[in-house]
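Colleagues,

For the teaching module next term, I've prepared a clean inverse folding example: a structure given as tokens, and then the sequence designed for it. I'd like students to try predicting residues themselves before seeing the answer, so please don't circulate the second half yet.
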């Protein structure tokens, strides 16, 4: 190979290398273009190597290739100059925009910051809103890095807010997956009413988790569940609304039932209720016995000549009539009192027990209060006062036992009063009838005997 030919080959290679170095520089902003150029460069390099090998053997072809390379190099230089000129133009435009932005001062930045903050707060406040259930999506979050907000961003924000505002007055029926209390999910018919509530099959719904999964509330009040179920089935136009977004209904749902309150009293509450039930049972049985005696006495008073053993008056008068007429009046009165006293235990049976239980019930309630407060202070000692729910158990026991003690004592006092009044009435009737019989007998015994009639003596 001659010296001229080697020099020409070096020029061609240099031109090709320069060309290959300039091509990636033109596409440095586009990654895909770079990859394409890299692949093309490898192909061109292989092709140029073949051409170089062929040109080394052919001087005329080498000369022609050199001219072509020089021509391409000139074109690349021209394109480079055009791109540099375009870059200068873009830089001047950027400087112009920066100058305009600086002229508008900090007001534009303040407006942008307020808009970004307000839109972020609004989006956060609507995160747990029911409006997005079957409704429009939340507006996109405006990024702090956006120094200049685009008109499209502002239009999108305004449109989404308008749609959300319109959704607050809409009722939407949709199909969605709802998890029951056991966590099993099923596709159900869901109704969403504005931003107030959502329910399905009479059960109020709530959202849980980062993906806002729908779950059935722990407890929906029975009355609210009935109304919501009828509304979903189209049987009524009434619906339950809670302006506090379910807080009031949740509070009502968390109220324990009567049985749950009863169990909150614990062991002391069970004892109080058991004693109260025992006292009321005794009072009821004794009062029924006194009513039976009252009716028996009424029948006996209508038929005093036929004394019966099914009533206290009949038994007392029978014993009195069996007494000998030779007894002194004091002895008759003592025997009569003895017969009356023998009937008293039956008439006053159970009164002492009812009165005792009525007095014990409040004391047991007070005992439950003390034990409940002890439990409360133990919880405070262990867990502190940070969580009021840990103290709620002891406080509930204290209050419930007090209420149970009072509720038990009041009816027992009424029962004791009723038994006492009824028994006193019966005793009064017995004493009155016995006194009347005694007085009648004494009057008959002390009545003056008629003088014997003497027949005139005939001489």
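(Answer key — instructors only)
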């Amino acid at each position: 190979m001659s010296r001229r030919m080697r020099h020409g080959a070096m020029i061609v290679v240099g031109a090709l290398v320069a060309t290959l170095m300039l091509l990636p520089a033109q596409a440095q902003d586009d990654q895909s273009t770079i990859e394409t150029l890299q692949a093309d460069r490898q192909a061109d390099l292989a092709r140029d190597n073949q051409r170089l090998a062929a040109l080394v053997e052919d001087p005329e072809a080498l000369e022609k290739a050199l001219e072509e390379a020089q021509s391409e190099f000139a074109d690349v230089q021209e394109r480079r100059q055009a791109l540099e000129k375009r870059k200068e133009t873009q830089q001047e435009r950027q400087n112009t925009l920066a100058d305009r932005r600086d002229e508008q001062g900090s007001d534009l930045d303040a407006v942008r910051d307020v808009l970004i903050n307000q839109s972020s707060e609004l989006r956060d406040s609507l995160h747990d809103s029911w409006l997005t259930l079957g409704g429009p999506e939340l507006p996109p979050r405006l990024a702090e890095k956006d120094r200049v907000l685009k008109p499209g961003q502002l239009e999108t924000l305004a449109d989404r807010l308008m749609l959300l505002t319109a959704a607050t007055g809409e009722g939407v029926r949709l199909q969605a997956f709802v998890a029951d209390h056991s966590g099993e999910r099923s596709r159900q018919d869901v109704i969403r009413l504005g931003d107030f509530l959502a329910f399905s099959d009479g059960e109020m719904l709530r959202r849980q988790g980062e993906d806002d999964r729908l779950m059935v509330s722990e407890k929906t009040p029975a009355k609210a569940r009935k109304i919501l179920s009828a509304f979903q089935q189209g049987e009524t136009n009434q619906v339950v609304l809670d302006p506090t977004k379910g807080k009031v209904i949740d509070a009502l749902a968390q109220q324990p039932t009567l049985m749950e309150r009863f169990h909150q009293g614990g062991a002391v509450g069970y004892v109080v209720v058991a004693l109260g039930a025992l006292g009321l049972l005794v009072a009821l049985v004794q009062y029924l016995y006194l009513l039976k005696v009252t009716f028996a006495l009424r029948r006996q008073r209508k038929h005093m000549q036929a004394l019966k053993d099914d009533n206290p008056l009949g038994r007392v008068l029978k014993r009195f009539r069996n007494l000998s007429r030779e007894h002194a009046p004091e002895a008759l009165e003592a025997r009569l009192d003895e017969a009356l006293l023998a009937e008293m235990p039956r008439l006053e049976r159970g009164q002492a027990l009812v009165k005792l239980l009525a007095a014990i019930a409040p004391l047991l309630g007070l005992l439950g209060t003390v034990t409940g407060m002890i439990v409360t202070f133990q919880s405070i000692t262990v867990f502190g006062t940070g969580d009021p729910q840990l103290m709620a158990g002891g406080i509930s026991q204290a209050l419930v036992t007090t209420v149970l003690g009072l509720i038990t004592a009041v009816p027992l006092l009424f029962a004791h009063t009723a038994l006492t009044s009824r028994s006193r009435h019966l005793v009064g009737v017995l004493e009155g009838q016995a006194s009347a019989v005694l007085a009648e007998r004494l009057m008959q015994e002390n009545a003056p005997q008629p003088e014997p009639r003497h027949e005139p003596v005939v001489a």
